[in-house]
Write a structure and sequence with these properties.
Layout: H1 2-7, H2 9-20, H3 29-45, E1 48-53, E2 61-66, E3 74-79, H4 88-91, E4 95-97, E5 100-102, H5 106-126, E6 134-139, H6 149-157, E7 162-165, E8 175-179, E9 181-190, H7 206-218, E10 228-236, E11 246-255, H8 259-272, E12 281-290, H9 297-312, E13 319-322, H10 328-333, E14 337-339, E15 346-347, E16 355-357, H11 360-375
Parallel strand pairs: 3-6, 3-7, 7-14, 8-13
Antiparallel strand pairs: 1-2, 2-6, 4-5, 5-16, 9-11, 9-12, 10-11, 15-16
Helix pairs in contact: 2-5, 5-11, 9-11
């Protein structure tokens, strides 16, 4: 497999270039569906069937498995969408400089799509039939929280033993064994307008009330326990000489353990149930929608196996926790042993400087292929 993948590196880069040069931002449905059509054709050449789940707002989601698969035990998830708007690919298309490749979505995660495809090719080339033990979801909306694909991922995770999530490895090559969960809230305060010079006493300041809530909400943070409550954006008022009749706060929540969600939800509702400025009214919207990916015994066992595979091919494997979210949270929450970050190494995702470390492409593909093979024995 190793020789095959080394010899395939140029071919892999050509396919990555093709995918990168298609705009597939989450809201660019046409582009995502073009990427999906290319990948569908590639998988069908390898004997896989591709079920298309049609979506109106976002790109279509794809369910991929070999035509001879019988109750596969491994689920793999790789998203096709990026964060970049229409026109980005034309402005800065795929390019190679030295040992790195650049372009919108090059590592998050179009290189991962190609890695997954060539891992299957390597398995077939080697004579292994473990590619029949895989169910693959190529989803279209991960960058906005997977609103359409989350139910699909949770549905297809039922009965699976292992989940391999194809987000890129960290800059230092680490796999991801834990992710923080979280969600967002919007706090809307309604007050009463009045002229601040003529009759301020008749007004009820929404901004003053919101200030109390900002302090109370931020105080819920407990960094030692992995809880972060951040009021990151506020707005309000109508003019400098008017008692503000309305104010809004947008709140970001991060948790490390699932039980923290219920506690925070109750505390946030409690804080917003009463007002400190009489005559104001509070409307609370939002929820903690993404569960955390917790590093449990199942995860540790799967990591140990991947580490052993790494040793066999001369690759040191180590893991880390990260605050960012991914679809790994959804597979983990269903009770499936989950490891994330199985894509190639790169960095600066979501920025103009996003890059792929080219030399890691064949080695990470080999790691993935041999991990699938080992899990299937």
């Amino acid at each position: 497999m190793e020789t095959y993948l080394q010899q395939s590196q140029a071919e892999m880069l050509q396919l990555i270039e093709k995918l990168v040069n298609i705009d597939s931002g989450t809201y660019v449905k046409e582009g995502i569906d073009r990427v999906g059509a290319i990948l569908r054709e590639e998988y069908e050449k390898l004997g896989f069937t591709v079920e298309v789940r049609e979506e109106e707002k976002y790109g279509n989601n794809l369910i991929v498995q070999h035509r001879n698969a019988i109750d596969p035990k491994i689920i793999l998830v790789a998203h096709m969408d990026t964060v970049f708007p229409l026109g980005t690919a034309a402005e800065r298309p795929f390019r190679i400089e030295g040992d790195r490749a650049y372009g919108p979505g090059v590592v998050d995660m179009k290189s991962s799509q190609v890695e997954l495809l060539y891992a299957i090719k390597a398995l077939q080339q080697s004579g292994s039939e473990s590619y029949k033990n895989m169910l693959i979801i190529l989803n279209s909306d991960e960058e906005v929280g997977s609103p359409t694909s989350r139910p699909l991922i949770e549905e297809k995770s039922q009965g699976k033993e292992y989940a391999l999530i194809m987000e890129p490895a960290r800059k230092d090559g680490s796999l991801v064994s834990a992710r923080r969960g979280g969600g967002t809230y919007t706090v809307i305060v309604k007050g009463k307008a009045a002229h601040s010079g003529i009759e301020p006493q008749k007004g009820r300041s929404a901004i003053e009330e919101l200030a109390h809530k900002v302090i109370q909400l931020n105080a819920l943070s407990d960094y030692d326990k992995g809880i972060s409550v951040n009021v990151g954006l506020i707005e309000g008022g109508s003019s400098i000489n008017t008692i503000p009749p309305i104010a809004t706060a947008h709140v970001d929540i991060r948790i490390s353990e699932m039980h923290q969600a219920k506690y925070l939800e109750e505390k946030i509702k409690e804080i917003c149930a009463t007002t400190d400025v009489s005559g104001t009214q509070i409307i609370l919207k939002g929820s903690i929608s993404r569960p955390p990916m917790e590093k449990n015994k199942q995860t540790e066992s799967l990591l140990h196996l991947i580490e052993e595979v790494g040793k066999e091919i001369g690759l040191q494997v180590f893991d880390t926790a990260t605050g960012g979210g991914s679809d790994a949270s959804f597979t983990s929450a269903t009770g499936v042993a989950t490891v994330d970050g199985l894509g190639p190494v790169g960095g600066n995702a979501h920025s103009e400087d996003e890059y792929l470390e080219i030399k890691t492409l064949p080695e990470r593909t080999l790691l993935l292929a041999k991990t699938i093979d080992r899990l299937s024995k």
